[in-house]
Specification:
By secondary structure, the chain is α+β, with helices and mostly antiparallel strands. The chain has helices at residues 5-15, 25-32, 37-41, 69-74; strands spanning 19-22, 49-53, 61-65, 81-85. It is elongated.
């Protein structure tokens, strides 16, 4: 895990933030320790999100497109709550 959770929570407390939402491939990788396959192929055109709360009782979460589920699950991120949006073939255009 790349994330320094103690430091992140301290900074969130100092600046009045309840959570961090990572949205760029680099920040999602830092926060969750995982990267989506589509971000390697379609850089910055497919979105994944990682959410990390200041409250230690709140579980962190990954929010990924449907086509990322298998790949992200296989990477075994330390974040266990995985939510999806869109279909499994969201990159395929009619």
């Amino acid at each position: 895990m790349y994330l320094n959770a103690e430091r992140a929570r301290g900074l969130m407390a100092d600046f009045g933030f309840d959570a961090i939402i990572a949205s760029t491939p680099e920040n999602v990788t830092y926060l969750a320790g995982t990267v989506g396959w589509s971000n390697k192929v379609y850089a910055y055109s497919v979105h994944m999100f990682a959410v990390f709360a200041r409250d230690e009782g709140a579980a962190p979460a990954l929010i990924v497109p449907g086509q990322e589920v298998t790949y992200v699950s296989a990477q075994q991120s330390w974040i266990k709550d995985l939510y999806t949006f869109g279909g499994k073939s969201a990159l395929i255009q009619p």
